[in-house]
From TrEMBL:
The keyword Transcription does not apply. InterPro entries: KR_dom, NAD(P)-bd_dom_sf, Sc_DH/Rdtase_CS, SDR_fam. Residues 7-185 form the Ketoreductase domain. SUPFAM superfamilies: NAD(P)-binding Rossmann-fold domains. Keywords: Oxidoreductase. Pfam families: adh_short_C2. Gene3D superfamilies: NAD(P)-binding Rossmann-like Domain. SMART domains: PKS_KR. Belongs to the short-chain dehydrogenases/reductases (SDR) family. This is Glucose 1-dehydrogenase 2. The gene is ycdF_2. It comes from Methylobacterium isbiliense.
């Protein structure tokens, strides 16, 4: 039997990249998946089509997780369509880099609103429906270990996500809801292509830091998330798993 048969999962920011791979990975193990998107309906629809073409269940739901009403609406839509909620993957996130002299209020608020506030609001909405055995999985970053120059605001958001993960693991433990984080290293996505990282000296440096000597793929992260969503991880909570090819 598939590891997630009968379970319902919401993946925020799932229209492309790591989020899309996570949604597909969860569906492949039997979960019904809500593919959340903020603006890219075409991308979300493509993910849903890929899942359903393989015999899975999925719907696309628009919602900006930085707005409480929309975050709650996303979760309510999942429950209304599939009748329950078992897994929340807080994947929505943005990355922008700037030296400390160039950090602006807008830059700071944009990053913290999506990466931190969005995680809190989506989780707040989800915990009303998660029961015993429920799983919250936050997508952090191996950047909190690397501490690269020009990433103060971005790395700060992921440090906050790590702290939130630990606090909520303690807070929700009496309800037997597990909370964990996955910290990807460098992963090739649409975003890294758009940012010009793919094929650049920066990419070469990032790959050189991994023990496996290659860039990550979205599927590398999806497999770890699928494990944490499943009952195989029933004794795992409050943990941060770094999936980075052994970054050092």
């Amino acid at each position: 039997m598939s590891k997630l048969a009968g379970k319902v999962a919401v993946v925020t920011g799932a229209s492309k990249g790591i989020g899309a791979a996570i949604a597909k990975g969860l569906a492949a193990e039997g979960a019904a998946v809500v593919v959340n998107y903020a603006s890219s309906q075409a991308g979300a629809d493509a993910v849903v089509e890929a899942i359903t073409a393989n015999g899975g269940k999925a719907i696309a739901v628009q919602g900006d997780v930085t707005i409480a009403a929309q975050a709650h609406g996303l979760i309510e839509a999942a429950v209304a369509r599939f009748g329950r909620l078992d897994v929340l993957v807080n994947n929505s996130g943005i990355y922008e880099f700037a030296p400390v002299e160039a950090i602006t209020e807008e830059h700071y608020r944009r990053l913290f609103d999506v990466n931190v506030l969005g995680t809190l609001l989506a989780t707040q909405a989800a915990v009303k429906h998660l029961g015993e055995g429920g799983s919250v999985i936050n997508i952090s970053s191996a950047g909190t270990d690397v501490l690269a120059p020009t990433t103060a605001a971005y790395t700060g958001t992921k440090g906050a996500v790590n702290a939130i993960t630990g606090v909520l693991a303690n807070e929700l433990a009496p309800r037997r809801i597990r909370v964990n984080a996955v910290s990807p290293g460098y992963v090739v996505t649409e975003g890294t292509h758009t940012a010009g990282i793919v094929g650049s000296e920066m990419e070469a440096g990032l790959v050189a830091q991994t023990r496996f000597g290659r860039a990550g793929r979205p599927e590398d992260i999806a497999g770890v998330v699928t494990f944490l969503a499943s009952d195989d991880a029933g004794w795992v909570t409050g943990q941060r798993i770094t999936a980075s090819g052994g970054i050092h």
